[in-house]
Specification:
Layout lengths: L23 H23 L29 E7 L4 H17 L4 E7 L4 H11 L5 E3 L4 H6 L6 E5 L5 E6 L4 H16 L3
Helix pairs in contact: 2-5
């Protein structure tokens, strides 16, 4: 990717003479909007989301609180980013609990990561849902920024090598659960 700072230099030499414009206001508008367009383009370049194929940041190094970070080496891992104020997140927790119950013995690790700024809201959500998997708190929002999570909830399904294999933005009930089951089956069937 290139950015305005790393774009190739223009060829040296004399510039062509300016051509008078029949619409001087258009030039003014372009001059006014150019910095805005550059800023928007630059924002897209700076944001580096963790995408399919990328290595997921190590959970143990992410300053997560609220419990122990489970061992994930050599496991298929479902990392779910959620927030207490998110209605689809509330619907996803029972589905993730079912996935955990059905696949944990075969090597699936589920880790839910709250992005709540309010520790009390995080704690109340966990107490309400009693997940059978770790529901940790990214209190400094270090991991959510590093991953550049696009929406709540978003889950990342990692292969045994720690690389992102599937990303699910949002939770769409039975459709998302079916897709996750199909993908988990494929990942667990891969050779170690």
């Amino acid at each position: 990717m290139s950015s305005p700072e790393s774009s190739p230099p223009r060829a040296a030499g004399p510039r062509p003479a300016a051509v008078p414009s029949a619409r001087p206001r258009r030039g003014i508008k372009a001059a006014l909007f150019a910095p805005v367009l550059l800023a928007l383009a630059g924002a897209g370049i700076v944001r580096a989301a963790i995408a399919v194929g990328a290595a997921f940041p190590p959970l143990a190094a992410s300053d997560l609180t609220g419990g122990a970070v489970p061992a994930t080496a050599g496991k298929v891992v479902l990392v779910d980013f959620w927030a207490s104020w998110c209605a689809p997140c509330q619907a996803s927790f029972p589905a993730h609990a079912k996935l955990y119950a059905d696949y944990a013995a075969r090597g699936l690790v589920v880790v839910a990561v709250s992005v709540d700024e309010n520790p009390a809201a995080y704690a109340a959500f966990v107490q309400r849902f009693h997940p059978p998997f770790p529901a940790l708190h990214d209190r400094a929002q270090q991991l959510v920024r590093q991953v550049s999570v696009p929406a709540m909830p978003t889950c990342y399904l990692l292969g045994r090598d720690g690389r992102v294999r599937y990303v699910h933005e949002g939770f769409h009930g039975a459709d998302t659960e079916r897709a996750l089951r199909r993908e988990i089956d494929l990942l667990l069937a891969e050779p170690r």
